[in-house]
Amino acid sequence: MSKLAVEIKGLSKAYGKLKTNRALDNVSLEVKEGSFFGLLGPNGAGKSTLINILAGVVRKDEGLVKIAGIDVEENQKASKFKMGIVPQELVVDPFFTVYETLEIYAGYFGIRKRDRRTEDIIDALGLKDKINAKPRSLSGGMKRRLLVAKALVHSPEILILDEPTAGVDVELRDQLWKYVKKLNEQGTTIILTTHYLEEAEELCDEIAVVNKGRVIACDTK
Ligand code: ADP
What is the DSSP string of 142-202? Predict the structure, then answer.
């Protein structure tokens, strides 16, 4: 049996004082190691809530969540090393250049100077011309690529992209997918959330459809 990159069992999360807004309702999912997994669903389906629980920034109400066999609540630090997350919002620190941003992140993960891949990552994401630029001078698509770069500094086994093509032009989008596909071919598990069926169909080998906090279908393409 192949190993699991992500294992989710009976996951539920409701927001609000009275817990009336059920963002996730008894969700179970398995993502196999090395797969390109799509989480497809309309706005408000619960995709970001699920990703935020994986990332450890939202607390679940019930259920089990494991990343590469590690329980995300029991051992948050170890699980963070296993995954890189590209958030939906374009948040980047305005004070640091592209290079500095990645170096700070590598430091945060405790990666020794000689083991860092800062320049390689910048190169791979086509940000070489912007290596000393501050985020203010980057276009939306470049900021998105910087966020992808940030998520890769610790060479994670699992890369999670939350609606990564929102606001990205076609050319940049194609470049981004080419790179993400290459990472997948090299063994990185990719999890992508999207509300575009075509995007999920084109890229993913397995797709889970979520709606109103429930998984309504999950199958290979
Ligand atoms: P998606 O990413 O699929 O668009 P979300 O996970 O963002 O879905 O949202 C699922 C539901 O949870 C929505 O009804 C949304 O309004 C609600 N929700 C998400 N985050 C919060 C929050 N921090 N507080 C209250 N409600 C939230």
Answer: HHHHHHHHHHHTT--SEEEEESTTTT--HHHHHHHHHHHHHHHHTT-EEEEEES-HHHHHH
Kindly report the backbone phi and psi dihedral angles of residue 169, in degrees, each rounded to the nearest multiple of 5, phi listed first.
-75, 165
How many H-runs (helices) and E-runs (strands) does the chain carry? 7, 10
pLDDT digits (tens, 9 = 90+) for 47-67: 999 999 999 899 999 999 999
Express each pLDDT in 172-195 by its tens digit. Answer: 788 888 889 999 999 999 999 998
- CA of 10 relative to ligand 1 center, distance in Å: 18
Burial zone of 94 (CB within 10 Å; 0-12 exposed, 13-18 middle, 19+ buried):
exposed
Local structure of residue 16 (DSSP, 8 states): S
Q: What is the pLDDT of residues 76-122, one digit of tens each?
A: 999 999 999 998 888 888 899 999 999 999 999 999 999 999 999 99
Residue given tokens 């192949």 in the structure block: 2
Q: Is 132 in the pocket of ligand 1 (CB under 6 A)?
A: no
Which residues make beta-bridge pairs with 12? 62
Say whether 116 sits in a helix, a strand or coil: coil
For residue 40, the CA-to-ligand 1 centroid distance in Å is 15
> Whole-model pTM?
0.93
* CA of 45, closest atom in ligand 1: 3
Ligand 1 contact via 196 beta carbon (within 6 Å): no
